[in-house]
Amino acid sequence: MQDFPLYFQLGWRHILDWQGYDHILFVIALCGIYTVTDWKKVLILVTAFTVGHSVTLALSIFKVISVNTPLIEFLIPVTILITAVSNIISKKQKPKGQKFKYGLALFFGLIHGLGFSNYLKSLLGKSSNITAELFAFNVGLEVGQLLIVVSILTLSFILIWFVKIKRWGWNFFLSSAIFGISFVMAAERFSALLA
């Protein structure tokens, strides 16, 4: 575990790296429609996403499944796009709708885990004992993810409770912006997938 600090730092830096802003966008889309009072829903959503990406990250690193990199790179913005659309069309968080969101977060986490695996594989090289490094990297990813969640919930709280922006207006603005960015990203990656 002597390399724990190194891989922990690589994990949180990777999720917060603006060059890989697709993962940041997904976490914002996932929790951006909620406020601090919805912390339990956000906690379940983030946990579902974490479980999903932890599973496929481990399976890919241990070579149980193989990754088609261009396909995964295309599917990541598609997950963001679908999450943004889901936010726009669901005005109220009904129990059945919320369970569906939890399922989507878990499934989309599986896809994002495969995206993380390419980066981690390049770091590990031909290392034979990767369990500790995988664990440290995953913990780092989670810390970075939590920083994004806390930041976006704080921003939502300020805009809704102090600036008095309507919750639906904030949701629509944020989700529409994320939809536009992810649509362009998906279109660019789709053409790369066909090349």
From TrEMBL:
Keywords per UniProt: Membrane, Transmembrane, Transmembrane helix
Annotated TM spans: 20-36, 43-65, 71-90, 102-120, 143-163, 170-187
Xref: InterPro entries: Put_HupE_UreJ
Stated name of the protein: HupE / UreJ protein
Keyword Nucleotidyltransferase: no
Domain of life: Bacteria
Pfam families named in the record: HupE_UreJ_2
